[in-house]
Specification:
The protein is an alpha/beta fold and 294 residues long. Helices cover 39% and strands 20% of the residues. The longest helix is centred in the last third of the chain and has 26 residues.
Amino acid sequence: MHRPVIVGIDGSPEALAAAGWAAREAQRHNVVLRLIHAWTPSPHPSAALPSPTSQHHWARRILREAHDHLGALYPYLPVEEYAVEGLAPSVLLEASADGALLVIGSRSLGGSTGYLAGPVALHLTTQCPTPVALVRAGEQAEDAHQLNAEGRSATNTPYRDIVLGVDLAHPNDETFAFAFEAARSRGAPLRILHGYRPLPATGAGAAVASAVPAEYEMALDALVRPWREKYPETVTTATVRPGRAQSLLLHAASEAGLLVLGRCNRLRPGPYTGPVIQAAMHHSRCPIAVVPHA
């Protein structure tokens, strides 16, 4: 990762949490953090914001406050800030083309207030040409770490696992590369999971049902093997389990530091994520990264 990590800022708690997560990601990879705030002139300015000039000043203030907050926590991290006139989805989508990762705040459990949640998160997740990370409000640095001996969150314990969901029907290098690099940069274990719908295990279908998992395991092992060789220092487990993929991944990610999912650009145009990403966006307890691939 050499290009900047980009984060959308709107003054909300979700955006501030996303900025903190993005700062730690930029610091791990020794790259610039770029803060972007999108603003649009009000057609009916109020007394508090009497002109586009003052609205631009307010946008700069939001960025400055976020910059100051991050500077106190990460004083040696290079940070850039941009106030860009335009609608948030368009501004952030255009900005993402220059970055390695776009980070946005998102309310958990399907909340839809604030411009970085709901439709905006959906638009960016489905349209962005680079990986998109969604971070919920309240996310702290210690949340990425295992609990200490007292059962409390702390930053001096090992990192939690990275969980990668794999769709054997659409294998790709981009998602594997992102997940392995995320695990390597943290020194975290990587858990790779593929879920499948089992065939009825009765009558003539019983033999087929028992044979399918072995085929899946062989296919998953073949995909993982070259990445294990490329990242020998990363502790990696690869598992095939029966059940709905979204349920299996949400359970696996309940104690994880990051859930990584792939998004196939060929499947369907427009704001479509598929059931797995949709479930993760609404219910994941940890940050999620959605990686686009062909």
